[in-house]
Design goal:
The complex is a heterodimer of chains A (277) and B (251). Chain A has twelve helices and no strands. Chain A is an all-alpha fold and 277 residues long. In chain A, helix 3 crosses helix 12, helix 4 runs antiparallel to helix 5 and helix 11 packs antiparallel against helix 12. The two termini of chain B are 34 Å apart. Chain B is 35% helix and 24% strand. Chain B has a six-stranded mixed beta sheet with strand order 6-7-8-3-9-10, with helices on both faces. A four-stranded antiparallel beta sheet of chain B has the order 2-1-4-5, covered by helices on one side. The chains are: A mainly alpha (277), B alpha/beta (251). At the A-B interface, helix 8 and helix 9 of A face helix 3 of B. The complex binds adenosine-5'-triphosphate and magnesium ion. The site of magnesium ion has 3 residues of chain B, from helix 1.
Chain lengths: 277, 251
């Protein structure tokens, strides 16, 4: 495996100079300070919140508090309820993301393949892009029923248009001269797609994936708000309805953790893809 | 000898929404097997257009182009096209780049040839490198090997050195001319640089301003086996001046 950003030639054979060690030391110290700062911000925020609730500056019943969130999450976990909701939401999001991205890639390939179709579709894609797809939620429920299918469909709907337009833009930016070179070798259109357009668009596709992940979360949570059977979205709505803000907050915090996790999964994938290129 | 490549009455008009551009008008040109022909002409006169038509990428509006007596109506396997820049694919290693044509044409049999080309012309130790790890000269050399790997009869070179610095240009033109002569290829070479044309080619063809016609077809015989040594030949200056005057006259 190649180092991702290895310099062309290593400029310093042998031991590093004193200047360089000093520089590296400073660099490491800087990194540690930044990490410490980040942790500190989180700690301070939690402490302030907890303190304010304990001292009665804010009403813990309405504003909750870190300790209450923690105990609620623990209770939910022990009763097994939490895992059900997390599982359902995660399943729906991953499914929505995968279907949305796959459809987006297919649609982008189709647009690239038939430039005329791309021109015809262009104004509609622009409109669809600016339309808040969530507004279609109630219609989807009427069509698809009140099950997982409807929620996944909403998630797909929310992510697919952004995925399509950003991936297609990447496809159209493939170097025309590289395509010319390939055609001079007698390449078919399919070979142009697989040998130039797709590999050249890996970076755009990865940034499209990052967008889609976020979009799928939005779609799924909104779907669960509307349908309210299971999942973190349901948990949050339920907590609000029975006026247990601890449950609402616990749901939001867990959602934060999960979406961060999924985002970093995509980043990890990006690093891996980047190394292969 | 029968010509390898023959253009007869070739014309080309570009159509755009705004206007029609007559790029080439009734052009005749023929190249014999083994010849090294350079084309020089004013900027925008249609040199690249002619190469694109010969490469089978652009059908002429009128006239005929034949390679070995066969009409060129699509990219033919006997033709290798080398562009101004190397256009190596960053997502492929040097070896995979050189083998690109073999992959496109599904000719696994050419692998050994490609490998021996890499060995002979000093790129074998870089075969697993990415293009970005090579210098400009080495990249252009890899691009030439990519063109040679498919074993074409005719090489089309469109200003292959113009993106390089002067020194690399001189050494690379020596190398490329040696490689092409050693592999016994026929070459059609477009350049802006009169010295380069005279030093490298057996024949220099001068194009007029657009629409391109042949205004001078000058065989070049100079002592010396490499372009660099030919540059110091006595007659070099005379050839240079002749072409220079021709270009001035039609500019
Ligand atoms: N796709 C195109 N559509 C319309 N006009 C074109 C197109 N390609 C080239 N032309 C025009 O045709 C003429 C010839 O272009 P060409 O690229 O063949 O010239 P060239 O001799 O290679 O120029 P240069 O020396 O700058 O490389 C130019 O005037 C150019 O503007
Ligand atoms: Mg040109």
């Amino acid at each position: 495996m190649r180092e991702p950003d290895r310099p062309r030639s290593s400029p310093l054979p042998g031991a590093p100079s004193a200047d360089r060690s000093a520089y590296l030391r400073r660099l490491r110290r800087d990194r540690r300070l930044i990490t410490a700062g980040r942790v500190l911000v989180l700690l301070l925020f939690a402490l302030l919140w907890e303190g304010a609730a304990q001292l009665g500056w804010i009403d813990g019943f309405i504003f909750s508090s870190p300790s209450r969130i923690f105990t609620t999450a623990l209770e939910l976990a022990q009763s097994g309820e939490l895992w059900l909701h997390v599982g359902v939401t995660l399943y729906e999001t991953v499914l929505g993301f995968v279907i949305g991205t796959a459809l987006g890639i297919l649609a982008a390939v189709w647009l690239w393949w038939c430039p005329r179709a791309a021109k015809i579709a262009d104004p509609y894609l622009v409109i669809l892009n600016s339309l808040p797809k969530i507004a279609l939620g109630p219609v989807i429920i009427v069509w698809m029923g009140t099950g997982t299918a409807a929620i996944v469909t909403i998630a797909v709907l929310v992510s697919v248009v952004v995925a399509t337009t950003s991936i297609a833009t990447g496809f159209f930016e493939a170097d025309p001269q590289q395509l010319l070179l390939l055609r001079s070798l007698g390449a078919t259109k399919f070979q142009q797609l697989t040998m130039v357009v797709l590999p050249a668009s890996v970076p755009t596709m990865v940034s499209a994936l990052k967008l889609s992940v976020g979009m799928s979360w939005v779609g799924v949570i909104v779907g669960e708000f509307l349908i309210s059977r299971a999942g973190l979205g349901y948990l949050i709505v339920y907590g609000g309805q029975v006026f247990k803000l601890d449950i609402v907050m616990a749901g939001v915090v867990i959602l934060c953790l999960l979406s961060a996790l999924m985002y970093y999964a995509v980043v990890w994938f990006e690093k891996k893809a980047g190394r292969r290129r | 000898m029968n010509p390898l490549l023959q253009l007869e009455g070739v014309s080309l008009r570009y159509q755009t929404a705004e206007a029609e551009t007559v790029a080439i008008e009734r052009l005749d040109l023929s190249v014999a097997p083994g010849e090294f022909v350079a084309i020089v002409g004013p900027s925008g006169c249609g040199k690249s257009t002619v190469l694109s038509m010969i490469a089978g990428l652009l059908p002429p509006t009128a006239g005929s182009i034949t390679l070995n007596g066969k009409a060129v109506d699509r990219p033919l396997p006997g033709i290798g096209y080398m562009l101004q820049r190397d256009y190596l694919f960053e997502w492929r290693s040097i070896w995979e780049n050189v083998a690109l044509g073999l992959d496109v044409r599904k000719q696994p049999g050419g692998r050994e040839r490609a490998e021996s080309l890499l060995k002979t012309y000093g790129l074998y130790e870089f075969k697993d490198s990415r293009p970005s790890e090579l210098s400009g000269g080495m990249r252009q050399r890899a691009a030439l090997l990519r063109t040679l790997a498919i074993d074409p009869d005719l090489l089309l070179l469109d200003e292959p050195f113009s993106a390089l610095d002067y020194q690399t240009r001189l050494t690379l033109s020596d190398e490329v001319s040696a490689i092409i002569r050693k592999e016994q290829k026929t070459a059609l070479f477009v350049t802006h640089d009169i010295s380069e044309a005279v030093s490298i080619a057996d024949r220099v063809v001068v194009f007029s301003a657009r629409p391109a016609r042949v205004t001078l077809d000058l065989p070049v015989t100079l002592p010396g086996s490499t372009p660099l040594s030919r540059r110091s030949a006595e007659e070099f200056r005379a050839y240079f001046d002749r072409i220079w005057k021709e270009l001035q006259h039609h500019a």
